[in-house]
Write a structure and sequence with these properties.
Elements lengths: L1 H5 L6 H10 L8 H21 L5 H20 L6 H5 L1 H20 L34 H11 L5 H12 L4 H8 L3 H23 L1
Helix pairs in contact: 2-3, 3-4, 3-6, 4-6, 7-8, 8-9, 8-10, 9-10
Length: 209
């Protein structure tokens, strides 16, 4: 971890998050760990600043604070929802920031310009809007319903099933793109999703009984 902090070549966001989640010497109170955490949170701040340029400065500060608290909480509690950030950070943080913008938009009941949802980074033309409030391309459920089910079921899924489900449900990418992320074919993604949904349904039936 000390080498990671002082390395001349910057580590990726995914790499920093991996170390934060899996290596916590002294309960996360070592100088090296704290340095990595601060670097990671600084990068989260930078993403938020890029994507909130069109909203009031007070709201920008609140969104950055919300994101910091969310990540610290999820890292400390070893929450599986961070899996998606560990293998597709740029796309996942984009959706998270847009979610925060829309939440404050609803609270303030004010118009937020479209420019608030764009940035000058190089992660493609997709503005990430489909990552929030969209419906699954396999099961017609709301995003909120899906994420609640996912949270309860994650521990029952295999690693690849979990990642396939997070990619298609949380990031809202198609099966071909999900396969590219996971290094498998679209057909394999379809098989993983079918297996994951079978487990979801079994879990739901068991809860109802």
């Amino acid at each position: 971890m000390q080498e990671l902090v002082s390395g001349s070549t910057p580590a990726s966001d995914e790499c920093l998050l991996y170390f934060l989640r899996n290596f916590q010497p002294n309960g996360g109170h070592s100088p090296a760990y704290e340095a990595i955490l601060l670097e990671f949170l600084k990068r989260v701040d930078q993403r938020a600043i890029k994507r909130t340029g069109g909203i009031p400065s007070e709201r920008r500060t609140e969104i950055r604070g919300d994101l910091r608290v969310w990540f610290i909480d999820k890292i400390a509690n070893q929450n599986d929802l961070l899996d998606v950030f560990e293998f597709a950070f740029n796309r996942a943080i984009k959706g998270k920031i847009i979610d925060a913008i829309r939440r404050y938009q609803a609270r303030d009941a004010t118009e937020i310009p479209a420019s608030a949802f764009s940035s000058d980074d190089d992660d493609g033309d997709d503005d990430g809007s489909e990552a929030i409030g969209a419906r699954s391309n396999l099961h017609r459920r709301t995003h909120a319903e899906t994420m609640l089910e996912l949270h309860d079921a994650l521990e029952q899924l295999s690693d690849k099933e979990r990642r396939a489900l997070l990619a298609t449900e949380y990031l809202k990418v198609d099966q071909k793109e999900a396969g590219r992320m996971l290094g498998v074919s679209a057909r394999r993604i379809r098989q993983l999703l079918e297996s994951a949904y079978d487990k979801l349904e079994t879990m739901k039936k068991g809860a109802e009984e």
